[in-house]
Amino acid sequence: MDDRPDDRRSRRGTGAPASGGVSVENPQVLKPEERDVPTGAAALAKGLYLLEVIGECATPPRFKDLQAATNLPKGTLARMLNTLVLFRLVRYEDSDSTYRLGHRLFELAHRVWESFDLRGAAAPVLDRLADETRETVALCSVDNHEILYIDQRSRGGAFGFRIEIGRRAPLHCTAGGKTLLAFAPPHERRAMLDGIRLERFTDKTIVDEEALNADLALARVRGYAISLEEHVEGVVSVAAPIFDHTGRAVAAIGVFGPHARLSNDRLHTTGRDLMEAARRISGNVGAMPVNITPQPKLRVAGESDAECVLPWGAHLAEGPVWMPHEKRLYWVDILAPSVHRFDPSTGTNEEVVLPRLVSAVIPCRSGGIAALTQDGLEALDFSTGRLTPLVDPEQDLPDNRFNDGKCDRLGRLWAGTMRLDASKPTGALYAIEGDRSWRRLADGFFVANGLDWSPDGKTFYFADSAPGRIYAYDFDLAAGAIANRRVFAEMDPSEGRPDGLAVDSDGFVWCAIWDGWCVRRYAPDGRIERELRLPVPRPTSIAFGGPDLKTIFITTARIRLPSRVLAQAPFSGGLFKAAAPVAGLPASEFAGR
After folding, report:
1. What's this model's pTM, rounded to 2 decimal places?
2. Is 117 a catalytic residue?
3. Catalytic pick from 499, 506, 515, 525?
4. Are 360 and 370 in contact (CB under 8 A)?
5. Parallel, antiparallel, or unpaired for β 413-419 and 317-323?
6. Host H or E run for residue 70
7. Strand residues in 121-169 grouped as ranges (E)
8. pLDDT < 50 regions, the chain
């Protein structure tokens, strides 16, 4: 039966409510009675409220979802929907009986941006940031292969760094310039780089294009760029992009000041606050779901089921793997970028900084380790940080990088990729043999993430974080093949998103829940068996370690968490551990090197 109401009658929907539908308690949409609506405009207010509800749905709603969310009478809801459809503000999708925002809104958005006053919209944000940071805050855009500063506020006093409106600066060594380079489409970035000379202004200016591109990749993943005395000696800066309604970076907002006052930690904290400020200026357009600052549910530190064994403050800690012969846990900070070796018996942590993004460490049968980086699979000498390229299945996709990876019992490496900013489903799943030959097994992923196998080796688990799903596949070890993909577990965005995972010896799947303040243990049938509560919102991955593999090590992140959240979760970016009820499975080693 059709779910669509018409002018004469409304009908019941036939399917189940869409997963992730609107909640009546959705705090993002105020009901008409909660607003100061002028007399005589009640009907209009209800219609606009309905439009907002549809827009805030995680997935397109059906008629009965909207009825549950708004509590509007059927007849009233049907008439309003039909009117909104008539004016093309809402469209009805016959294929699944759902309602979506209409194309007319996109047309109107174009007209809004044609007359958008960027300086006017940014002015109150500039004032607030200048007051909060007590430094110089500036707004800039690209003009003729240079940065043009179009507005500024200064609170730095006599020892601050002042920027004149109308001043120009280089692209490659300023935070604003690097931000707009990093977030430009590849062809535009190439054209801008071709149009400039990488001139040296200080001894810290990046004048090597390969090194600059690596730095721009870091900015894309972080969401902001940093300049460490690269343009003016003693002056550091951080900037975040402002997007238009199409998702294009049209300007950048940055904070500038002396290195003595703006430490590295403060720069990164300010960068996360700038991302939030930039979205406020542009009305929250252009941001992908994984980039939006969360509104996490807070947990009291005393409620944690895990202990912080290394309060490191990593930007994006990931890829933990236990090396039994060393009795050490290896892990990475994707955005440092760096690889770490942690000794749980002494609490000491060794770090080696790398020249490009690194997402996972892989033990090798021949000895030593390999690393998954933005340039593919590379051998890593931990003592020196030297990387030696092995194979790169995506060398023609410079805006992609590898993410998580593990080896099956034959030593075949399985690894997923993703776009640097997770803005498009360009990620894929690869199998890399010991002889470095490779195959693409699946594609179309936003954030290819945690993966592992059942104890009997017949089921392969693989997460795509953006849609909130953990998939299960039938696995053929001998052939290195997967088949029969199905959803093993799925979560509403309000619960968080699945990140790294590992399977224990009983076949239960442990998964770190990004923005969920917890690690979940799923039974083989997909049922949630238990949760480990954490005092931080963004756990990223887990590994079983210790002499009996009964210790769960949990990596976490502080990327894109504004200062107000970090104040409530200060151990974000730390390494945690908890006791497991059963042992985990040992990590398999890569057959090649």
Report:
1. 0.76
2. no
3. 499
4. no
5. unpaired
6. helix 63-70
7. 136-143, 146-154, 168-169
8. 1-27, 284-293, 295-296, 298, 301
